[in-house]
Amino acid sequence: MKKLLILNAVTLLALSAQTPSALPPALRGVSESFRTYAGRNLNAPFSTAADGAEEINPNILYIPKPRVNPSRITTSAATAPASTMYNQTSGGTLPVTIVGNFAGLGTGFPNWTQQGLLPPDTTLAVGNNQIVQWVNLRYTVLNKGTGASVLPNPGYVQANQIWSALGATSVCATHNQGDPVLQYDRMANRWVLSQFGFAVGTATGGTHPTYPAAPYAFCVAVSQSNDATGIFNLYEFTVPSMPDYPKLGVWPDAYYLTSNDFTFSTVTGGSSYVGSRVCAFDRAAMLQGAAPVGLCFSGLDPTHFAMLPGDFEGTIAPPANAAEYIISTDWFTLNSPPYTMQLRRFKPDFVTIANSTLNDGQGGASDSFVAMPFDSSVIGSCGDGGGICVPQPGTTRKLDSLSMRPMYRLAYRNLGANRETLVFTESIGHAAPGSIAGIQLVEIRNPGANPPQVYNNVNFNPDATSRWMGAAATDKLGNIGLGYSVSSSTINPGICISGRLRNDIRSTLRGEMTVQIGAGNQTSSSSRWGDYSTMQIDPADDCTFWYTQEYTSSSSSANWTTRIIGFKFNSCQ
Q1: Side-chain half-sphere CA neighbours of 164 within 13 A
Q2: Does pTM top 0.85 for this prediction?
Q3: What are the residues facing 123 on neighbouring strands?
Q4: H-run or E-run covering 174
Q5: Of 88, 227, 425, 467, which residue is most buried, by most CB within 10 angstroms?
């Protein structure tokens, strides 16, 4: 799905903090064995002509950051000390070993036929024996050791087939719209799959003839076993506005989904941003296949954009009854620095919905947050403009940086000894280098403390190469690994990894390693790239990082390729 769905002049609605509302499933069911279904439906993909319309419709375009300053909603009850970013220009040896490097979905994958859709939404989850990769509208299950698909030929399926048992009235079953996110719930050894669903409307006038139309839904599937080719519990949750860019986090009490919500004009097809939505779904009920209680806060402060839910990794659970963490930033809606991260805590009550809270965790009002200011040198890439600024060799076409928004995942780990950590990346700029996109790593220590500590804050920007579209995670020792895209006027879009050891100097990274060299450019006029990539930790050893990202294997409009790379720090065994 193209992000953001900022199609024309954006309306930012300043809404008051909302009370929670219940979100029961509109539809639920049970799938067949997915391996069986994939084989029987091999030549009859369950899709419609409208699938992926957002990616291929030339009239639906991304417009960079709107330079507006809407009425602020000041609900912050606490402020952490300003975080000083270190602009790093060199790094030491990266002590890692590559343990896997194989083709993902896209050009070069066996039996692949390219769909011509931009951007690919590249994501994966890792279990004890399998890797599930989902790219845009297609889904595969791979043997973790060999990288070979374990599904019947051609080795992948249309992703909305997962929900086909919900029937012809289900928007999740009848439309395949992308924006997938998936997880392996290591506490239960289950797979959790999701994407959004919506119909496609036709505008009566204006410049955007088609637009996402109701019904809008979160589509969620939870496996009944640790086999991703087996049976899934299926759910469709209907919401009143289009939940764009949904992100999924696993926590002991619930599965959490966040989204940027939009409404659309039936006349012009244009959109209005109506704030973020954060939802919690009763994890225990979904694991059992029961009807879960779901609840959402919506219409949240519209100046705080791209909310990410914390996602548990590791073997030590969060403290008993710990609230979920939600991060956001305000770069997208402010005119100039300093910019701020916002940290909220979400505690659902599935028995008494009204008792659910989303606040700073320190007694603040609903939608209050802990403000964590960046220093004034932190700006968006493209000279603080965001959007299209990443160069490629031999062409004037540039790529979209999706600047200054927290990128999936917000990885949570409890390392014991009163050390909890949240890790995520952004693509940013810096006052000195100008328009180059740098990869920023942020680590928040002890996020439940008053105040939390921004422990690591580094912009890795050693040369004229742009680094963006990153993802990060933490292994059981506390080492951090990250991956990202690279491109420049002399380097075709490719894939690099970097990281830091637990006891390295604060706000520094080791040097980078190129794990996939690009061999062409993306020439599409849309300039969209990625949307997101994914880094996960292998539950089998809690050491191995698995990363999936796109790159270019030849110059074309939309002939993208993806790669799956496994690596671990030599100190982690």
Answers
A1: 19
A2: yes
A3: 134
A4: helix 171-174
A5: 467
CATH 1.20.120.640 fits 21-569, yes or no: no
DSSP E strands in 203-289: the ranges are 210-223, 232-239, 242-250, 254-264, 271-282
Measured distance CA(139)–CA(129) in Å, rounded: 17
Burial class of residue 94 (count of CB atoms within 10 Å of its CB; 0-12, 13-18, 19+): buried
**Computed from CA positions of residues 406, 407, 412, 415, in that sequence, does the dihedral angle turn out positive or negative?**
negative
Partner residues linked to 135 by β-bridges: 122, 138
| Dihedral class, residue 478 (left if φ above 0, else alpha if ψ from -120 to 50, else beta) | left
Q: Could you read off the pLDDT of 523-564 as tens digits, one per residue?
A: 998 899 989 999 999 999 999 999 999 999 999 999 899 999
491 compared with 378, residue with greater pLDDT: 491
Cβ–Cβ < 8 Å for 481, 570? no
Q: Where are the beta strands (DSSP E) in 475-531?
A: 480-487, 494-500, 513-516
Q: Residue range 168-186: average pLDDT? A: 96
Q: Residue 503: exposed, middle, or buried by beta-carbon count in 10 A (0-12, 13-18, 19+)?
A: exposed
Which range of 6-10, 28-32, 303-307, 346-350 scores highest in mean pLDDT? It is 346-350
